[in-house]
Amino acid sequence: MALTLNEALQMLKEPKWLVVDGVKWSSHTDRAEKAKANYIWKLKARSRTVASMPRGLWFRAETWVDYPSKAVFQLECDFPNTRSHIVLYRLEMEPFGTHLNTGWGPPELCGMFFDVGVTHEHSFLHYAEMPNGPLTPGADPMATITLNPPTNFDSAVVHVCGILNIQNGSQIPPVPLQRQLV
After folding, report:
1. pTM: predicted TM-score of the whole model, two decimal places
2. How is the chain split into domains, by residue range?
3. pLDDT of residue 37
């Protein structure tokens, strides 16, 4: 059964609660930065709505141990009958790399370039009026600059929870200490 545009819109806009009981941050090595021993803290939590727990609706957050001002937040939905997912929303706060919007999407966004460190947001809503629909698996290649971008992790949580209508963002566990002295 395919995910419809109306279902995706509902998942994005209706009030949500993260299922955070027992959810903890886990550390991972950034494969692209392995030589630099750059570690990432990752968090993944199921999301539920007033009426249900939609199939495969997940909230993800990442931040880097040595770069606490950089973070990624994402709301995604499992793509039906596959191991892929649909990114409904993504915030990239002070990203390491540049970003170039591809040629398929709203004309006003095509070709926009974001330099290293420019906070930007991806939303499948950019494709809502496009022919063939926006609901393809994988990442959303179109972004817009974030006006009044968050300046730290806590303000980013508030920003993202406001956009995604997450009611219990204050219950997201705090990020562990960036580096612990041994």
Report:
1. 0.86
2. 5-170
3. 47
